[in-house]
């Protein structure tokens, strides 16, 4: 199996990172913290965002982080006004984009809820994931075209959801791109497995990096069939944990769940799917429940999902957290709040370090299928481990999925491929076929059409790349 290969002549002494979505409320600060703690290389980060003021604010934050005594990296930050300026000659491109939640994400969640469809996240599959994909495909075509023109050998790291569709779009637009979809869900499962090893196998405080897993599937619906720690089979610990539970273990409105963070999880869904299929899901429960119909379909009120140890993330949280994050940033810049340089638990700079020739990294990535998932379609973006070394990424063969799980995964691969095709053609009728095929869209045919039409109308301003007037499904 061949890998992805970039330029062999990187200017290591002065690396350029172009950040698309440089006004990011989350990933930009994580990158700044990681770079501040990195001694192997330095350089410049160019921050580009449609909201230039957000990018400018982040550039100020980056400079303030660099001035801290704990910062050992040598980095400069600048906000730029065009995509071309951000990418010109870049060695790495980081993508983390999102449309204003009040104009998009809120509709993705609230409109389906009017039809009785509840979503825990709404950014990968289901009604919300479908429309987030339709909005993102034209944007990621533009990014890929700009990479082709301004930095064709750059390594492109995508953090935007829907991860699979965005990464697939980059390759469809520019087949020679060196793009990698990066997600932390598998790390979190490794952390949980490390905790189980400590609890059930008397292994003393193992780090998640010591947990070796074989992963396969698509982003947020990835599966583990091998997990070891120092040669010890960690499925012993999973079995021991399952023996102590009988998911679902909670009641609707349970205070233990009602009072926890909307991002919290208790691994109830993970263990239930493991019990059903004999293979361990490698994503958070909030994501997993959206890939199959039987957890969310019975939900009539938000508290009903508490049975599975998770909560719905309401649109109000998505809308309110947007300005709150910027207010927190302004408080740091004004000196009202301190600068805290700490490792955010992400691997993006480890990947950069390996690609620049400083060692090797084995981790989970999302790239087109070259045979690493032999039972899934070639070319579709899949998530498996890969080995990253100097200017090279080699996907590692993961083997096949059990037939019942493969069937579940293939439905989503088909939908994702269909959405990309629809996005490139501007065809909402084709997009509707994927929407209708979503396991989470458990409505009668007339209501499915009505929901689709309502979402198009609510987000019309963000769908100008599509032939709305000519779509039969809307008439």
CATH topology of the largest domain: LDH C-terminal domain-like
Name the helix and strand elements from N-terminus to C-terminus, one letter apiece: EEHEHEHEHHEHEHEEEHHHEHHHEEEHHH
Going by CATH, the architecture of the largest domain would be: Alpha-Beta Complex
Helix content: 40-55%
Let me know the largest β-sheet: 6 strands, parallel
Helix count, per DSSP? 16
Strand order of the largest sheet: 4-3-2-5-6-7
Radius of gyration: 22 Å
Terminal-residue CA separation? 48 Å
Protein name: Glycoside hydrolase family 4
Family: Belongs to the glycosyl hydrolase 4 family.
GO molecular function, one term: oxidoreductase activity, acting on the CH-OH group of donors, NAD or NADP as acceptor
GO biological process, one term: carbohydrate metabolic process
Characterize the structure shown.
With 475 residues, the chain is α/β, with parallel strands linked by helices. It has 2 domains: 238 residues, AglA-like glucosidase (LDH C-terminal domain-like, Alpha-Beta Complex), CATH 3.90.1820; 129 residues, no CATH class. Helices cover 41% and strands 16% of the residues. The protein has 16 helices and 14 strands. The chain has a 6-stranded parallel beta sheet, with helices on both faces. α1 links the parallel β2 and β3. α4 runs antiparallel to α16, α5 runs parallel beside α6 and α6 crosses α14. The longest helix has 25 residues. It starts with a strand and ends in a 17-residue tail after the last helix. About 1% of the residues have low confidence. Pfam families: Glyco_hydro_4, Glyco_hydro_4C. One of its GO terms (molecular function) is hydrolase activity, hydrolyzing O-glycosyl compounds. This is Glycoside hydrolase family 4.
């Amino acid at each position: 199996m061949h890998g992805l290969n970039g330029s062999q002549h990187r200017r290591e002494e002065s690396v350029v990172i172009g950040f698309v979505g440089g006004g990011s409320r989350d990933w930009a600060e994580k990158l700044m913290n990681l770079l501040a703690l990195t001694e192997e290389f330095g350089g410049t980060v160019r921050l580009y965002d449609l909201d230039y003021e957000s990018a400018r604010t982040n550039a100020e934050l980056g400079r303030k982080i660099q001035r801290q005594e704990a910062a050992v990296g040598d980095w400069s930050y600048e906000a730029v006004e065009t995509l071309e300026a951000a990418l010109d000659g870049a060695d790495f491109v980081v993508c983390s984009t999102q449309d204003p939640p009040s104009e998009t994400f809120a509709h993705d969640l609230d409109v389906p809820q009017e039809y009785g469809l509840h979503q825990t996240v709404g950014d990968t599959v289901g009604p919300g994931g479908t429309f987030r994909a339709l909005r993102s495909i034209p944007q990621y075509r533009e990014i890929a075209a700009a990479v082709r023109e301004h930095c064709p050998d750059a390594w492109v790291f995508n953090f935007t959801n829907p991860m699979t569709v965005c990464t697939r779009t980059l390759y469809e637009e520019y087949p020679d791109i060196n793009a990698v979809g990066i997600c932390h869900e598998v790390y979190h499962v490794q952390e949980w497995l490390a905790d189980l090893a400590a609890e059930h196998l008397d292994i003393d405080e193992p780090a998640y990096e010591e947990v070796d897993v074989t992963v396969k599937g698509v982003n947020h619906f990835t599966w583990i069939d091998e997990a070891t720690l120092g040669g010890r089979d960690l499925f012993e610990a999973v079995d021991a944990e399952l023996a102590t539970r009988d998911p679902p273990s909670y009641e609707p409105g349970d205070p233990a769940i009602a009072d926890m963070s909307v991002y919290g999880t208790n691994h109830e869904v993970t263990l239930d799917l493991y019990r059903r299929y004999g293979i361990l899901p490698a994503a958070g429960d909030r994501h997993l429940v959206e890939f199959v119909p039987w957890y969310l379909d019975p939900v009539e009120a938000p508290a009903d999902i508490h049975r599975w140890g998770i909560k719905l993330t309401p649109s109000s949280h998505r809308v309110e957290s947007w300005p709150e994050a910027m207010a927190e940033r302004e408080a740091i810049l004004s000196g009202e709040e301190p600068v805290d340089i700490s490792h955010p638990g992400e691997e993006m700079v480890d990947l950069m370090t390996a690609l620049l020739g400083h060692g090797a990294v084995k981790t989970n990535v999302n790239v087109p299928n070259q045979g690493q998932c032999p039972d899934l379609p070639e070319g579709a973006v899949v998530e498996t481990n890969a080995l990253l070394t100097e200017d090279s990424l080699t996907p590692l063969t993961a083997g096949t999925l059990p037939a019942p799980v493969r069937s579940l995964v293939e439905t989503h691969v088909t939908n994702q491929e269909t959405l990309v095709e629809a996005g490139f053609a501007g065809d909402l009728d084709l997009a509707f076929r994927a929407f209708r095929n979503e396991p989470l869209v458990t409505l009668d045919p007339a209501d499915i059409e009505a929901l689709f039409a309502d979402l198009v109308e609510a987000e019309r301003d963000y769908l100008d790349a599509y032939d709305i007037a000519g779509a039969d499904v809307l008439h």
